[in-house]
Write a structure and sequence with these properties.
Length: 146
């Protein structure tokens, strides 16, 4: 198994673990948005510390070329998704929620890859890839069936 796949598996495991913990934090605080603020605040602090430690200043010339919507859209979508996860997990359970969320992510990723949107490498939709997506959708139904 290649190291990128191993890292992706670990990152996915971290997402599931943090989602469970932060959904619980949201229940204890009475609002999943509060847990999201805590998670984003801790994450921001950790990333600022990492950047300070590695001493990699931003490339201001490159930053000036970034389209304005890219400064905002990713953060807004992340906030909506994360608050949604933290709200759904106590209601659905982590497994059913993650199966649906990961399938939604993969379907959108396949679309973005097919068209090469946002400078992504192109991976044309093929019958095999479509069959994989259909299999994932069937998996969501099975996982959520109980």
């Amino acid at each position: 198994m290649n190291s990128f796949v191993c890292f992706a598996l670990l990152a996915g495991a971290a997402i599931a673990a943090q989602a469970s913990m932060n959904a619980h934090l949201g229940r204890l605080l009475g609002n999943p948005a509060h847990a999201t603020v805590v998670a984003f605040g801790v994450g921001l602090t950790a990333l600022v510390a990492l950047l300070a430690f590695t001493r990699q200043p931003p490339d201001l010339a490159a930053a000036r070329t970034v389209p304005p919507y890219l400064w905002v859209a990713g953060g807004l979508l992340s906030s909506v998704a994360i608050v949604g996860f933290y709200w759904l997990i106590p209601r659905m359970g982590i497994g059913p929620m993650m199966s649906a969320a990961l399938t939604g992510q993969l379907l959108v990723a396949m679309l973005f890859s097919h068209f090469g949107w946002f400078d992504q490498p192109v991976a044309t939709l093929t019958p095999t890839r479509v069959a994989g997506a259909v299999t994932l959708l069937l998996g969501v139904l099975l996982v959520n069936r109980g």
